[in-house]
Specification:
alpha+beta, two-stranded antiparallel ribbon, elongated, 8 strands, single chain
Length: 248
């Protein structure tokens, strides 16, 4: 992936200040795939978007990720490094619907897309969000030979069948959910922690953007250069000029 330039990244950061998670995720995804249209990005399976964001993160900030997790059992703060190359691995998504046959049910469904997740995220009730996601992604549902409307599926499906649907989707799109099981060095208990690449990458981008704007301010004050002229400098040359300013 070709790294996005500093001016474009600053524009992404500025636009994302007024957005929440789904809006920021879309902005970051555009930075990862600058040639893709909004409709194409929204129609991608979740795992494909996550793979793009991990690739963008590696291109911008390298392969090392610092993570901090609190133990759910004793509250101990755990800090450690992760290798970003281990996450967001691209897999071939199914060419057609997935199929589950269990307890008299035959269900065909597609993987959730970015648009599906955004629609479900707009529903404040978790059960309502789950029902909406299931209805949107179901291609067909049959129970004992009779068709069942997708919008009624969540209320009628046994828990065992719902679990099988979730496992089938996770197996087909493993990059859609990155959950770490972190063993606490104090009490030994394992704490599950979701690695949300959108939130992680946004925090890094926010820190980077604010540092860069300070650099622009200092160099513009010292040399009278414009923002585009300063952003056109390589990071190494920009840092060298800043050191000269400090020594003056």
């Amino acid at each position: 992936m070709k790294p996005t330039g500093p001016a474009e990244l600053l524009a992404t950061w500025e636009a994302g200040l007024a957005q929440h998670d789904s809006g920021r995720s879309l902005l970051l995804h555009r930075a990862a795939r600058p040639g893709a249209g909004t409709d194409a990005l929204l129609s991608m399976p979740i795992g494909e978007r996550e793979a793009d964001l991990f690739a963008l993160r590696r291109a911008l900030f390298g392969e090392r990720m610092q993570v901090r997790v609190e133990c759910a059992e004793c509250g101990e703060a755990m800090e450690f490094d992760l290798d970003a190359t281990l996450f967001g691995t691209r897999t071939r998504t199914p060419g057609g619907p997935l199929r589950v046959e269990e307890d008299g049910w035959t269900i065909e469904f597609r993987l959730p897309t970015v648009a599906d997740l955004a629609a479900a995220g707009a529903v404040p009730d978790p059960d309502g969000a789950r029902r909406l996601l299931m209805a949107r992604c179901t291609v067909s549902a049959v129970r004992d030979g009779e068709a069942v409307p997708p919008e009624r599926l969540a209320a009628l499906l046994p828990e065992r069948v719902q679990r099988q649907l979730a496992e089938t989707a996770a197996s087909a799109d493993p990059a859609s959910d990155v959950t770490l099981n972190v063993a606490c060095p104090e009490c030994g208990e394992a704490t599950p922690a979701e690695l949300d690449i959108t939130s992680y990458l946004w925090i890094e981008l926010d820190t980077w953007a604010r540092d860069l704007m300070l650099d622009v301010h200092l160099l513009a004050t010292a040399y009278g250069w414009s923002e585009p002229e300063i952003l056109a400098l390589s990071p190494l040359r920009r840092r060298y000029y800043l050191e000269l300013c400090a020594d003056a």
